[in-house]
Design brief:
alpha+beta, five-stranded antiparallel β-sheet, 5 strands, single chain
Length: 89
């Protein structure tokens, strides 16, 4: 079983409908569409999981979302939790 330190965590920064940080992959494009809908609903935080990963997103300013993806919640929280919550590394 992998440890949180060895698990890959991927992050993105979306600003005004564009990826400003992170890999440009189909999953990121799909999440951008979801986050755009979440913004329209006035949501500021989303925690989700699919068959292979957990995802967490936070909006701290209009049009801006920070998004993280990992295999486990522990890895996500330990590796990028503060960045997701406050924008600080």
């Amino acid at each position: 079983m992998p440890t949180p330190d060895s698990e890959a965590v991927t992050t993105w920064l979306f600003q005004h409908g564009q990826i400003h940080h992170g890999p440009h992959e189909p999953a990121a494009q799909a999440m951008l569409a979801l986050l755009t809908q979440a913004s329209a609903l006035g949501l500021q935080r989303l925690d989700m999981n699919d068959a292979t990963h957990v995802w967490s997103a936070r909006s701290s300013a209009p049009g801006e979302w920070r998004l993280g993806r990992a295999v486990t919640w522990t890895a996500l929280d330990e590796r990028v939790g503060p960045w997701l919550d406050t924008g600080e590394s």
